[in-house]
Design brief:
The chain is α/β, with parallel strands linked by helices. The chain has a domain at 2-128: Rossmann fold, CATH 3.40.50.300. Helix content is 28%, strand content 16%. It is globular, with a radius of gyration of 31 Å.
Length: 689
């Protein structure tokens, strides 16, 4: 049995209770603390000592002889071996431990901070020891504080609740801080404790001596220095913040923590937990990371982290020269003024300061080492100072969701810039001069006011290092030139097409758009979406081509009749089609004949399908499909959709079974199921919305 969980969560306490239970039941129990450097012989010595086998003869034996003796001693006994805090797989046979099974009744139980160790040990039972639920955590904290202290002032129970929440259910923190507060009986002492835990928790009594070192032990045992830097970077975000993984990864790429030399997409995919959309950091672990980043409290200004602190101005800093990273996100700062000498500052996170409207011309003058600058979500910020040119080391700049109107001339001097995000900058109409940024690898323009005219396309074509491009296009003068640029369209990741008027010719997409992940059509008058084989090495459609495309959204395309090309996108997870009055087929049997003969089965990864106000829609697909990942179908305002491409074996089953949501009672009553088994399978999971 393996018990895994973070340091201080209570694994050792639970192991002690298990030990006592088995001793009471008559088992031979011996517990071993197996630290990271514990090798086979060290564990053998511990076990031999517990069993009374040590002595002169024992010391003369080699590892194999000792394993033989331990095995002979234990093979006739019903034992329980408890291994505490193991960091890697322990080979039981090398030590001499008889393999536990139901026949001999023996057991091996261990604790670890790594779920991977549980897997490698091949446990029968794996249990995660989690932090306490809020009510249980409060009960433990109040018990440690004691009734005498709690009754010393009417407001102390309320403040106790606040402090307990700061511990986020971690028993170690609840115990240590609770014991510290048990002798604090004035309201001033309790208010001070709340202030310390909110501003810089490492200064709280017991935190630095008893709590943080235990968590640091896990940190020290991280194998890769880059992983340690990642953990410190997490701590720049406010407590309780859900951190978007893609956002964090991009910071780390351009800070040089994650290697981006082999390509941005490859770097993004280095994370084994690629499926995670957001990450979350336990607040006590965050305090540990900040404590380490500040050289164990000796240099508090190394990392200045005051996110969501209600600040109306930048904090007072004694010595700006020691500041390396600063996070002031989610505050009320309206003005960045003065000329701070931040000669070693590499990261400045200023996003989500809704009041920010001014950055003085000299503010960036002494930030020559700044690499990452995030000004996103500052909706009152309409211009950048000309002296942004002083940021000679800048590689990452995020200006998304600001009110920026133009790029200053100094912008062209950011020669090292590799990531530029201008998404949803509606007032930005031009990116003239962008061709000066020759190292640019990522350019995000979707949702901006930038017009794709001929001159803009020509500037984009100069950016030979460009790997990722997001864009919104309409009937712009440079549209034809853009779609004919093999290199530019191969960089497209997100594409929003709105108001396009191509009633007679339709629009063609190249088969080389393998980076395309998100595609949106809004209010377009296009008769057909075609696939251009010009750059296809095979010049046919016998295999999938839009390999990365996962999301497709079609709205208000009134003369579009089918979306057959979707069958050549094998990674689709989300399809949303609405207000398309003449759409008859998602995939047309007639036009899909090539794909059908090649054996392509569409929608194998599809999770969500929404069809709303598509009155002429007759078919999604002409026969049943497996839909192994499909969780939801929504069909509203589709009176002519009589058949769904389902059979009794389609979709997910069990707790996560496929749900069909509908609005019109007459529609669900008129559905023509493939057979009675299909109807029996899916009708109970149909839900009216």
């Amino acid at each position: 049995m393996g018990l895994h969980g973070m340091g201080g969560v209570g694994k050792t306490t639970l192991l002690t209770q298990i030990n006592n239970k088995f001793r009471h039941d008559g088992y031979v129990c011996f517990d071993i603390v197996a630290f990271k450097d514990s090798h086979t012989q060290k564990i053998q010595e511990e076990i031999a000592n517990k069993l009374g086998m040590v002595g002169a003869d024992w010391n003369k034996k080699d590892k194999n002889q000792k394993a033989f003796d331990i095995h002979n001693f234990l093979k006739w006994k019903t034992f329980v071996l408890l291994l505490e805090d193991i960091w890697e797989k322990v080979n039981l046979s090398e030590i001499g431990i008889p393999f536990p099974n139901t026949e001999n009744g023996c057991k091996v139980i261990f604790t670890t901070r790594s779920q991977e160790v549980c897997r490698r040990m091949g446990v029968n039972v794996k249990m995660e020891v989690q932090c306490l639920a809020p009510n249980d955590a409060l009960d433990l904290f109040l018990k440690k504080v004691g009734e005498v202290t709690l009754q010393s002032h009417l407001d102390i129970p309320y403040l106790a609740n606040m402090i307990a929440r700061k511990c986020y259910g971690l028993p170690l923190a609840l115990n240590v801080i609770g014991e510290t507060m048990s002798c604090k009986r004035t309201i001033q002492e309790w208010q001070h404790a709340v202030n310390v835990l909110t501003s810089y928790a490492a200064e709280f009594s017991g935190m630095e001596d008893e709590i943080l070192p235990i968590l640091k032990y896990s940190y020290d045992n991280l194998k890769d220095e880059k992983v340690k830097l990642c953990l410190q970077y997490y701590s720049l975000f406010p407590e309780d913040e859900r951190i978007y993984k893609d956002e964090l990864v991009n910071y780390l790429i351009f800070e040089g923590v994650i290697d981006g030399d082999q390509g941005i997409e490859k770097a993004e995919n280095q994370d084994e937990r690629r499926a995670l959309y957001q990450v979350y950091m336990h607040d006590v672990v965050r305090e540990m990371a900040l404590w380490i980043a500040s050289d164990f409290g000796k240099q508090k200004d190394n990392f200045i982290v005051r996110g969501r602190a209600g600040l109306c101005e930048t904090p007072k800093v004694k010595n700006w020269n020691v500041v390396r990273r600063m996070s002031l996100m989610s505050n009320k700062i309206a003005d960045l003024s003065g000329i701070p000498e931040c000669l070693h500052l590499t990261t400045l996170l200023m996003q989500k300061n809704e009041a920010l409207s001014n950055i003085s011309n000299g503010f960036f003058r002494f930030m020559s080492k700044l690499v990452v600058l995030d000004l996103s979500y500052n909706r009152n910020l309409s211009e950048l100072p000309a002296q942004i040119s002083d940021l000679v080391s800048l590689q990452y700049l995020n200006m998304s969701k600001t009110n920026i109107e133009c790029l200053p001339l100094g912008f062209r001097e950011l020669k090292k810039l590799r990531y530029l995000n201008l998404e949803f900058t509606w007032n930005l109409s031009s990116i003239v001069g962008i061709s000066s940024l020759l190292d640019l690898k990522v350019l995000r323009l979707r949702g901006s006011g930038v017009s794709l005219d001929v001159s803009t396309v020509e500037e984009l074509q100069v950016l030979e290092q460009l790997e990722i491009l997001t864009l919104g296009i309409g009937y712009d003068s440079g549209l034809v030139q853009f779609l004919s640029s093999h290199r530019l369209i191969s960089c497209i990741r997100d594409l929003e097409i709105s108001g396009l008027q191509l009633e007679s010719s339709g629009i063609s997409f190249s088969t080389t758009m393998n980076n395309l992940q998100y595609l949106e059509f809004l209010g377009c008058t296009i008769s057909e979406i075609k696939i251009d084989l010009t750059y296809s090495p095979l010049r046919n459609l016998m295999s999938p081509c839009f390999l990365s495309l996962s999301h497709v959204y079609v709205q208000g395309c009134k003369i579009l009749r089918e979306l057959t090309w979707l069958m050549f996108a094998p990674s689709l997870t989300y399809i949303d089609v609405e207000f398309s009055e003449q759409l008859e087929y998602i995939i047309s049997k007639e036009k899909a004949s090539v794909g059908e003969t090649s054996g392509i089965v569409p929608f194998l990864k599809l999770k969500f399908l929404r069809l709303s106000n598509v009155p002429e829609l007759k078919n999604i697909y002409w026969s049943s499909l497996p839909f192994p990942c499909l969780k939801t179908i929504i069909a509203t305002g589709c009176p002519n959709l009589k058949r769904l491409p389902l059979n009794s074996k389609s979709g997910l089953e069990g707790e996560k079974e496929l749900i069909i949501r509908y609005r019109e009672k007459e529609w669900i009553e008129g559905v023509e199921w493939e057979d009675e088994a299909t109807k029996t399978r899916f009708l109970p999971s149909c839900v009216k919305v």
